[in-house]
Amino acid sequence: MTASMGSSWTSSLISALADELILDRDPRTADWVLPGNRAFLLSLFVAYVYVVKVRGPHFMKDRKPFDGIKPVVIVYNACMVVLNAYFMSAFLSRTYMSGGYSLFCQGIDYEARDEVTMSLLNLCWWYMLVRIADFLDTLFFVLRKKDSHVSFLHVAHHILVVFNGCYGVGYGPDGQASLTIILNCFVHIIMYTYYFLSLLGPAVQKHLWWKRYLTQVQLVQFCIIFVHMMVPMFYNCGYPRPHIYIMLCEAVFFFTMFMRFTSRPTGRGTADQPRRAIAAGARCTECVSLVDCATSAGTIPVSCSLLYT
């Protein structure tokens, strides 16, 4: 009798956990290409890490930096500003502005197939491709022999953002996560605008005083995402629990890692590079991944601040 009760309790617990953590594919996107495709995701991530951490640096080992691709990087940054601005506007119009979304708590209706909802899902699919295109950031670093900028945080950020896109479109990208996507677009607009302008030379760089606020913008983003995702934890609006757990964990992870980099002493690790450059009288004319040199009179770096990309 006792053994039977114990077995029944265990089965009930496993069943409850399965219901809590395991989702079925979103029927609205079940036949779409790429979303929810584990083999594609795994292959993409393995290839990305291999190219930027192994094969790429090995290929560039005895070669000079491909600084000639700077115009390509400028065009790439400009395109990313335009794309993120478009997606931010499009997401807003299909959710909180004209889509009837609740800013407080918005669930997912997996049976909804109206024109606005399907347009939103289609938009999420294209946005996923844009985030995959972000991998070019890292490739540009490798080709210009800036391997120190291909940090764990940089690589993890790109991988997790793409994972979110593929997972979201496969298992439900709308609902509460819409605000996260909009915030992500907004931050990318600011960051890519800064990257674009910083590559235009000293005459433009001296006007980028507002870069000191970039770190605060990103920290605020993580805090908003965390608080916003906590709402459906305690208020049932039909938003899937697995989505909540993933977003909360990522918000904590990025906030913690970002704070770790911003609080790192300038005499250690990556942050030490600008110090050595200053000592050598080097010029800093463009932004880099986690370290950005502030310039005085547009040429000689006089201070450094940690940035997250």
UniProtKB/TrEMBL annotation:
MF-aspect GO terms: fatty acid elongase activity
Catalytic activity as recorded in UniProt: a very-long-chain acyl-CoA + malonyl-CoA + H(+) = a very-long-chain 3-oxoacyl-CoA + CO2 + CoA
Protein name, UniProt field: Elongation of very long chain fatty acids protein
Family membership: Belongs to the ELO family.
The entry's keywords: Fatty acid biosynthesis, Fatty acid metabolism, Lipid biosynthesis, Lipid metabolism, Membrane, Transferase, Transmembrane, Transmembrane helix
Entry EC number(s): 2.3.1.199
Gene Ontology annotations of biological process type: fatty acid elongation, monounsaturated fatty acid; fatty acid elongation, polyunsaturated fatty acid; fatty acid elongation, saturated fatty acid; sphingolipid biosynthetic process; very long-chain fatty acid biosynthetic process
Lineage top rank: taxon: Eukaryota
Cross-referenced InterPro entries: ELO_fam
GO cellular component: endoplasmic reticulum membrane
Chain ranges passing through the membrane: 34-52, 73-92, 125-143, 150-171, 177-201, 213-231, 243-261
Organism encoding this protein: Rhipicephalus microplus
Membrane topology reported for the UniProt record: Multi-pass membrane protein
